[in-house]
Design a protein that fits this description.
Length: 464
């Protein structure tokens, strides 16, 4: 029954969005240049990789998670990749075909969906996880990448966990939230440095929004609730379940980190959409959030709306939330098309200078629903400058992960690790760049054994 339909033509299944359906282990990969001896650990990158041809309409957010791991030690590199073997994926392996519908087909899924674990990875409290925002974290073995199962913090986590938790670099605490289409729309969680969940605070107010990320400062958790609303009542109707409702405006929630949820303060602003914050910090009686801002966001009917989407250009903005007056002021900081912002994570929650983002090169153009990022951008908040490293229009470049130099305590001194896909050769490489000398040739390039599909987020875990 479910297989009786035309082949899936989603743009998210074509080119380097198409899944790679082999798992493997490869030692002693070819390296151009020289891997620094102090780089000893594993770079992980998660992303959607449907094991079976999807049933129904497919969205990039739907695919089964596949974790790619490049381990570096003694100047050598190895590679391993494994699917996140969710309960749903194991069912599908047994059936030999896809059984679950994705985000665009919620009305056909009858409430069943997979915890794909496809969005991010997290290493905290000696455990390693694959994350997806609508479900519990999935624990993996950090070396073998074997799936150990869903993890609920000893029974204390009863709802979903964002794919963008924050580790406070000063305390080692893990701070995160979960969102829901029914009240409480947000729940804020804190785990101590050892990974014990110590608080779960339901937050009153807000909206039934899709909330992908949040930010922390020294004293606050900051939520950006954009009007991309989850309208479960629209399931089965012609109206979108993920509904852009600009007229609802936008809400910013500021919660003291150690407070109860009812101490949240909500600030209203004009609507926009934010997937990712770059960083946040306190400045006197203000909270400052730097984030990649879109004028709007839609998740459905993207191909029909391609022309409209071509004008939906992201940019780096600074939002200042005045705690006394309750006002929110937003200003553009860098007019560069950007996404996947990352910082030197030793500066999370604090005044900082540098950020790194994917961007589009000068040759990129067109009305793709999902632009190919062919450049990296380095933001210098002190100088107010942006440097753009253009890889060329045949290249697709992924999120850059910052790795500090072992002997440096200065912000931004270290390396950037990023996956680079070459469309002409259909190959992928891991580039190791100097974060300081951002425009120079790579320090080292690891040639990977096969292409790695475009994905979402990654992390460097030292010593693993
Ligand atoms: Fe994300």
């Amino acid at each position: 029954m479910v297989n009786m339909q035309a082949p899936n033509t989603s743009l998210f299944l074509q080119g380097n969005f198409a899944p790679w359906r082999e798992e493997g282990d490869f030692e002693r990969l070819p390296v151009r240049g020289c891997l620094p001896r102090e780089l000893r650990g594993t770079y992980y990158r998660n992303g959607p990789n449907p094991a079976f041809d999807p049933i129904g309409r497919y969205h990039w957010f739907d695919g089964d998670g596949m974790v790619h791991a490049v381990r570096i030690a003694d100047g050598e590199a190895s590679y391993r990749n494994r699917w996140v073997r969710s309960k749903g994926l194991l069912e599908e392996f047994r059936a030999g075909r896809a059984l679950y519908f994705g985000l665009m087909e919620l009305s056909r899924g009858e409430g069943r969906y997979k915890n794909t674990g496809n969005t991010n990875v997290l290493f905290h409290g000696s455990r390693f996880f694959a994350l997806m925002e609508a479900a519990l974290p999935t624990e993996l073995d950090p070396v073998t990448l074997d799936t150990l199962g869903e993890y609920d913090f000893a029974g204390k986590l009863c709802g979903p966990m964002t794919a963008h938790p924050k580790i406070d670099p000063r305390t080692g605490e893990l701070l995160f939230f979960g969102y829901s289409a029914v009240p409480p729309f947000l729940t804020f969680y804190r785990a101590d440095a050892d990974g014990r969940l110590v608080s779960a605070e339901p937050i009153p107010g807000g909206m039934p929004a899709m909330v992908h990320d949040f930010a922390i400062t020294e004293h606050f958790a900051v939520f950006f609730v954009c009007p991309l609303l989850l309208r479960l009542e629209n399931i089965g109707s012609d109206r979108p379940v993920f509904s852009w409702e600009a007229e609802q405006g936008m809400l910013w929630g500021v919660l003291p980190r150690n407070a109860t949820g009812d101490q949240i303060r909500w600030f209203a602003s004009d609507p926009c959409f934010i997937f990712h914050a770059m960083n946040a910090y306190e400045n006197g009686r203000a909270v400052v959030v730097d984030a990649v801002r879109y004028p709007f966001m839609e998740l459905e009917q993207l191909e029909e709306k391609a022309a409209e989407f071509a004008k939906n250009r992201s940019a780096l903005w600074r939002f200042t939330l005045e705690l006394e007056s309750g006002s929110v002021h937003g200003e553009e900081r860098a007019a560069v098309f950007c996404e996947f912002p990352r910082v030197d994570e030793r500066w999370i929650g604090q005044p900082y200078r540098y950020g790194f983002m994917v961007s589009r090169g000068s040759e990129s153009r067109g009305a793709e629903i999902m632009p190919k990022f062919s450049a990296l951008a380095k933001y210098d908040g002190k100088e107010g400058t942006i440097e753009v490293r253009d890889f060329g229009s045949h290249i697709g470049v992924g999120e850059a992960v910052f790795v500090p130099s072992g002997d440096s305590l200065s912000e931004g001194q270290g390396y950037l690790l990023t996956l680079v896909y070459d469309q002409r050769r259909n190959t992928s490489e891991l580039h190791v760049l100097s974060a300081e000398n951002f425009l120079e040739d790579p320090i080292a390039v690891v040639e990977l054994p096969h292409r790695i599909p475009y994905g979402f987020h990654g992390a460097w875990v030292p010593g693993v």
